Amino acid sequence: MKTPWTQEELNYIRQAYSDGKREKVIARELGRSEASVSKTITRHRLRHKRNYALLRERSKKQSSQPKPIKVDRILEDKTFNGHPCNWTTRDDVLKYLGEKSVHFALNYNKGQPEYFFNNQSVSLAKVLMEANKIRIAAGKPIFHLEDVTE
């Protein structure tokens, strides 16, 4: 679900990007995806070739950074035991599960990922469910994937 950009967010992007802040950092501060920030920079014609030497010099002279906007992007969703959710990417879920579960395995067959629990092939939905069980036990917000979570 797309969230419209507020004027405050657009002003923040203009200032932060012109000050040399990376798109990844801006996205994290605004609780948006890096892709959406990148598209917004392009759409509003803010993208230009950066002179990094000048940006480094400018950052030494002035210590005032644009103030981050406090945005709470954790969406409340009652589809999974009423826990708050955390929209994320498949890669983040796979990385998290690979670090937290010894029963999980990921293989590639002809370039396509195959997921396994206890040597049994499972769907991405099952992978998401197992990752969320671990997150709930740890008291963390659950993962939601755009193509999997309803």
Helical proportion, percent range = 40-55%
Shape: elongated
Biggest sheet layout: 3 strands, antiparallel
Number of E-state strands: 5
* N-to-C CA distance: 11 Å
Helix/sheet category: alpha+beta
Q: Using only CA atoms, what is the Rg? A: 19 Å
How many helical stretches? Answer: 6
What are the segments in which pLDDT stays under 50 over at least 5 consecutive residues? 75-80
Write down the secondary-structure element order. HHHHEHEEEHE
Q: Provide the β-strand percentage band.
A: 15-25%
State mean pLDDT (0 to 100 scale): 78
Number of domains: 2
Order of strands in the sheet with the most strands? 2-3-4
Structure commentary:
Residues 75-80 have low confidence and may be disordered. This protein has two domains: 7-61; 85-145, no CATH class. By secondary structure, the chain is α+β, with helices and mostly antiparallel strands. It has helices at 7-18, 23-30, 34-43, 52-61, 90-100, 124-137, and strands spanning 85-88, 104-109, 112-117, 120-122, 142-145. Helices cover 43% and strands 15% of the residues. The strands form two sheets. The protein has a three-stranded antiparallel β-sheet.
